[in-house]
Design a protein that fits this description.
The protein has helices spanning 2-13, 31-38, 48-71, 111-116, 122-135, 161-179, 194-198, 202-206, 215-224, and strands spanning 22-23, 74-80, 87-88, 90-97, 100-109, 139-146, 152-158, 182-183, 213-214. The chain starts with a helix and ends in a 6-residue tail after the last helix. The radius of gyration is 19 Å and the shape is globular. It has 230 residues and is α/β, with parallel strands linked by helices. The protein has nine helices and nine strands. The strands form three sheets. Strands 2-4-5-6-7 form a five-stranded mixed β-sheet, with helices on both faces. Helix 1 (2-13) crosses helix 3 and helix 5 (122-135) packs across helix 6. The protein has a single domain (2-224), classed as Lambda Exonuclease, Chain A (Alpha-Beta Complex). 23% of the residues are buried. Bound molecules: iron/sulfur cluster. The site of iron/sulfur cluster (SF4) has 13 residues, from helix 2, helix 7 and helix 8. Iron/sulfur cluster is lined by residues 30, 32-33, 186-187, 190, 193, 195-196, 199, 201-202, 205. Pfam families: PDDEXK_1.
């Protein structure tokens, strides 16, 4: 019926693809999970319901952006970072407040998580720090929205060159491992880390050793288990 058609539309639109370059959202994230994406390792499929929730978040963010436009403070929106070899990304907006430029990144979440949020999430700070770096802007704002209560919280983030250097070095090291076909080690607090809870590769990760592993050996192992790697 209609529900099945809509579900299939979402599943087809979000079909997992091989990753060829880093996105800003990869900064500071589990290197092993990113490695698996680059190698197109079979992963758990996301439910159509979750994919629709992402769409809902995008819709709310668009409404907020419209409000910022109405306030006349948007200098540009959906701004790509300057092209360079390592990473690509697109900031939600660059605005002017009190004659100062800010990079703004919107994040939406359910009200339960929103209520507990006392400080910006580490992964969001990593992302906006890279935007500040590539746009050469000193300050950013992380704007969080509750999807079901429409409440807002914002946090000002100042550029931290030391943090950015660590993130860029992490991506450069991961790039070398991807090119050398070395699967990075698991996160030190696997499987408790929040990334492991939501990871689409958690089963495949559990079937590998915790330290670095040669991709060629592991690929043979998962192919024997019946998972075809492209
Ligand atoms: S389960 Fe955890 S450690 Fe393993 S790939 Fe996923 S995020 Fe990384």
């Amino acid at each position: 019926m209609l529900k099945e058609l809509i579900d299939q539309f979402y599943l087809d639109r979000h079909r997992d693809r091989e990753q060829y370059h880093f996105y800003i959202t990869d900064a500071g994230k589990c290197g092993r999970a990113i490695f698996f994406k680059f190698k197109n390792v079979p992963r758990e499929q996301m439910e159509a319901r979750i994919l629709r929730l992402f769409d809902h978040g995008d819709y709310i963010q668009m409404q907020i952006l419209n409000t910022l436009f109405s306030l006349g403070i948007v200098r540009s929106s959906e701004v790509q970072i300057p092209p360079q070899a390592l990473v690509s990304g697109r900031a939600d907006a660059i605005i002017t407040l009190n004659n100062e430029l800010y990079v703004v990144d919107f994040k939406s979440m359910n009200s339960m998580i929103f209520r507990k949020l006392q400080e910006p999430k580490e992964e969001n700070v990593n992302q906006i720090q890279l935007y500040l770096h590539y746009f050469k802007i000193e300050k950013g704002i992380l704007l969080y929205m509750s999807k079901d209560t429409s409440e807002l919280k914002d946090f000002i983030i100042s550029y931290n060159p030391k943090l950015v250097q660590g993130l860029l070095t992490g991506l450069e090291d991961l790039d070398k491992k991807i090119k050398a076909d070395i699967i990075p080690e698991r996160l030190a607090d696997w499987p408790q880390n929040w990334q492991c809870q939501y990871c689409q590769f958690k089963d495949i990760c559990a079937s590998s050793d915790e330290g670095e592993v040669k991709w060629a050996d592991f690929k043979k192992k998962i192919e024997k288990l019946g998972e075809q790697v492209v």
